[in-house]
Amino acid sequence: MRNATEIDHLIHKNILTENDSAYIFYQEKFKENLRHLKSAFTKSYPNVVIGYSYKTNYTPDVCLAAHEEGALAEVVSEMEVEMALYHLKDHSQIIYNGPTKSKPSIEKVILAGGIINIDSQKDIEIIGGILAENSKLTVNVAFRLNSNYGGEYSRFGQPVEAVTEQIDLLKSDAQFNIIGFHLHLPHRSLESFAHRVDVLIDILGKIDLPNIKYINVGGGYFGKLSSVLKQTLGVKNAPSYEDYGELIGGRLFDFFSNTSIGNVPTLYLEPGSSVIADCFTFVSNFHALKSFKNRDILVSFAGRHLLSPTNKTIKLPCEIINTQAQIDQPTSEKSQYEIVGYTCIESDILGLVEGNVNLDLNNSFVEFTNVGSYSIVMGSNFILPEPPIFRIDGENEIKTIRKRREAREVLDQFLL
User: Fold this and answer.
1) pTM flag (> 0.85)
2) Are residue 331 and residue 232 in the same domain, yes or no?
């Protein structure tokens, strides 16, 4: 529990007086993360491009901020292709991933001049059909590789053997511009990224593809983790952006500098959580305090499905913020509060916070940090309509970027 800062007072007065809860987007912090990640890699590799992962958080202000920083749109579905075409001034700045690419969306990316990371033979068949209908079209393609790490094979991409056969069949086709390779695995450790580099170097040594332009190591990096969040996640040593950049960029640059491939291709990164998670907070008023024999429970207007939909068990980093009385008196009696959600799910217990026993609910609120990853895109109108989203700029100016949903709007989604 802590006393309110200037920005906390603004949030309490300008947001939580009209809303029970809200997401807060700190735009400048997001831009700083993107710049920091890129600079960490360019210390070891000369040409680095970021493709921001739309699926992680496709709030329009987030995507537009990423593009202002020069990031491409990394998308994984027909819906996200449409979003990227709406946001981007240069429609060619699309990297299309995903296991279920539709023909209309693939055609749009081809016409825009974007990049398609082939995930399966089905992708090739759809692309081939589109090209057969227009002999003047060409397509920029890379191949997503499948690999075994830690005894587990990813369900995405294709084995090196299948990719080798496909390239042998396609590299003489002038309509297919084969630019390189992509590899993403669901692991964040430096060791797992060293494995990605090993796989990429291995296939580069086996396949005759002169003048490769594109090496994509995907995403899955650790972002900036507070000591509290490290403890919550059970992470002792999280690699920094610089650690990833030195390992990945350094090894790949050494490889390309000492081979006969003939050029140093552009290195593509696809960050999501690592750049957006710590740029969102969730704030909520309290509805009630319930005290049992051994439990003090603060009922909030938050919910697990709004904060951490991909993890249902961990206690989330949160803090009670007091907007009036000073709370730094060492003699104040303390209690440990369970912060719970508004849902009717027994397990909707969000976090534990120590606070004064005479807590003033009307002049306090709870803040959850690191909620920018998957929370909004996987949120829902479960029990209550989705809360609003606000953006706070560098000058502490507050802007509404999604209004609070109403029950009528939820009903209007259905055919009545």
Assistant:
1) yes
2) no
